[in-house]
C-alpha cells in the first residue's frame, strides 16, 4: 500500500457500501473489513470485496482510519450516537456517511470525540454489483464537510473515479428531494410505459423503450445544463 493510503472500514453491505469500498480499494486503499448481516449482504460483500473479513461494527470502527457509513438514512443518527456512547470513535479518524439527507451535523457525536466528518453521496442509482464501478466513473458526488477538510472529501471522490460538487449543510434536504424525485419519477414513467406496451403484446418493452428514454433524458439534461448556465 502506498504512503498516504488509508485502512477503510465499510459499515453496511447493501447496494452502496461494497461498491464504494471496492472503488477505494481500486485506488489502493486497504479495506480492513465490512459489516454484513443477511446472507445476501455477505454474498454481495464477497463478490465485490473478496477476502475482506466480515466484522462486528465496534471492532471494524476501532481498526479503521476511514469509516464509511453506508446505512439507511433512518439508522444513521442512532448508529453514530451508539458508537459515541460506547467510546469507539477515535481522534483523527475520517468518518464518511453516504446519506443524501444529511450533511455533517448528524456526525456531531463522532466529531465530539475528535473524528473528522465528511458527507459524500453519489448521485446515481446503485445495483450493488460491479456494474456500478463503471457507472461511478460517469457520476457526480455531493460533498459536504467543514471548510478545512472539504478537500479531503473531494479527493476521496476523485479517487473513486467520480466528480465532486459541493452542497452546503443547509441545502442537503433540498438536494435529497431533487435526487429522489429524479429517481422516482423516471422509474414510474418507465414502468407505466412498459406496462402499456406489454398490454398490447410488445415483447421486451424495456429494450423497445431504451433508446427513446435515453435520448429523451439526454435532451432534458442538456437543456437543464443550458438553463443553469444562464
Helix and strand topology:
Layout: E1 7-11, H1 17-26, E2 30-34, H2 39-48, H3 57-63, E3 66-69, H4 73-85, E4 94-97, H5 108-112, E5 116-122, H6 131-136, E6 140-144, H7 150-159, E7 163-166, H8 172-199, H9 205-228
Parallel strand pairs: 1-2, 1-3, 3-4, 4-5, 6-7
Antiparallel strand pairs: 5-6
Helix pairs in contact: 8-9
Description:
The chain is of the alpha/beta class and 230 residues long. It has a seven-stranded mixed beta sheet, with helices on both faces. The protein has nine helices and seven strands; from the N terminus they run E-H-E-H-H-E-H-E-H-E-H-E-H-E-H-H.
Overall pLDDT: 93
Strand proportion: 5-15%
In the predicted model, the low-confidence regions spanning at least 5 consecutive residues are none
* Individual helix count: 9
The succession of helices and strands, N to C, reads EHEHHEHEHEHEHEHH
Radius of gyration using CA atoms only: 19 Å
Helix content: 40-55%
Task: Report strand order across the widest sheet.
Answer: 2-1-3-4-5-6-7
Major sheet summary line: 7 strands, mixed
Shape: globular
Given helix and strand content, the structural type is: alpha/beta
Q: Kindly, what is the distance between the CA atoms of the first and last residues, rounded to a whole number of angstroms?
A: 46 Å
Count of DSSP E strands?
A: 7
Looking at this protein, list some descriptive labels:
230 residues; alpha/beta; seven-stranded mixed β-sheet; 7 strands; globular
